[in-house]
């Protein structure tokens, strides 16, 4: 007699196979996100995100934390994707929207607004009216990790969500910005798996790095750019300035065929 799994039943949300199984079977971004927010495949991340939601920071003691995996944010026909690292414990893990509610997000959304890719320069919560124009923001790891450092196993387990998200965006996607070395190192093999050959040796991350990857078959090329992550460590030290990020996002928007408000 077959077990439920042998009979084709989906793995439970706590199983490491859950992301790959559910991502592969998602027919659109809404379906993908609905499966993603149920994921409990990484015990350490589940414990950390939920503990942050229980203990809270004093400034957010009246908040009901999201404390679940955080899905990507932006239109389903985005021409530009921005890939971060993971939700912050008291930022996106609190608000439920990528890069929303912390200093890194304030820095990023101000730059996106300056380039004409966001309707407002700040992001405070999911219902604040913020819209993105032609750009979708996501991450390789969708749960807040301790010390902002996912393990290699956690990154691997979460990878199918990013792979499927980029696959669903592929018909419109023309450019991707990877924020930081972690995003860069995770993104490149995902793109290779979609049929886009990488140069050898594999290009190293750098701010301003620019790859042009040929499309599978006769598909159009994809531009991949690297940027320092807008972490407080980088922005407070001046390693990444507002002007630097605005300049890079302007280049990315041009490569993606965007000219403010998605066109």
UniProtKB/TrEMBL annotation:
InterPro entries attached to this UniProt entry: UDG_Type-4/5, UdgB-like, Uracil-DNA_glycosylase-like, Uracil-DNA_glycosylase-like_sf
GO biological process, one term: base-excision repair
Pfam families: UDG (PF03167)
Cited SMART domains: UDG (SM00986), UreE_C (SM00987)
Single GO MF annotation: metal ion binding
Gene3D superfamilies linked to this entry: Uracil-DNA glycosylase-like domain (3.40.470.10)
CDD domains noted in UniProt: UDG-F5_TTUDGB_like
Record-annotated Uracil-DNA glycosylase-like domain positions: 71-249
Keywords, alphabetical: 4Fe-4S, DNA damage, DNA repair, Hydrolase, Iron, Iron-sulfur, Metal-binding
Family classification: Belongs to the uracil-DNA glycosylase (UDG) superfamily. Type 5 (UDGb) family.
PANTHER family, per database record: TYPE-5 URACIL-DNA GLYCOSYLASE
Identification of the protein by name: Type-5 uracil-DNA glycosylase
Species of the source: Streptomyces chattanoogensis
């Amino acid at each position: 007699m077959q077990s439920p799994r042998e009979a084709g039943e989906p793995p439970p949300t706590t199983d490491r196979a859950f992301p790959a199984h559910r991502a592969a079977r998602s027919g659109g971004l809404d379906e993908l996100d609905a499966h993603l927010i149920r994921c409990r495949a990484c015990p350490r991340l589940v414990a950390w995100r939920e503990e942050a939601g229980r203990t809270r920071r004093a400034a957010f003691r009246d908040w009901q934390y999201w404390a679940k995996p955080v899905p990507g944010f932006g239109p389903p026909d985005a021409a530009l994707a921005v890939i971060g690292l993971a939700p912050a414990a008291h930022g996106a893990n609190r608000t439920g929207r990528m890069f929303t509610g912390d200093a890194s997000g304030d820095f990023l959304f101000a730059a996106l607004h300056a380039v004409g890719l966001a309707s407002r320069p700040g992001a405070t919560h999911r219902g604040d009216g913020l819209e993105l124009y032609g750009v979708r923001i996501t991450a390789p790891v969708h749960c807040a990790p301790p010390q902002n450092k996912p393990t290699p196993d956690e990154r691997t387990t979460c990878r199918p969500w990013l792979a499927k998200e980029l696959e669903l965006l592929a018909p419109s996607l023309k450019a991707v910005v990877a924020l930081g070395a972690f995003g860069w190192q995770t993104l490149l093999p995902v793109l290779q798996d979609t049929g886009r050959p990488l140069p050898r040796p594999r290009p190293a991350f750098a701010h301003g790095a620019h790859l042009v990857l040929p499309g599978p078959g006769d598909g159009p090329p994809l531009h991949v750019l690297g940027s320092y992550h807008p972490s407080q460590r980088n922005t407070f030290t001046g390693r990444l300035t507002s002007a630097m990020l605005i300049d890079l996002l302007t280049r990315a928007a041009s490569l993606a065929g965007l000219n403010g408000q998605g066109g």
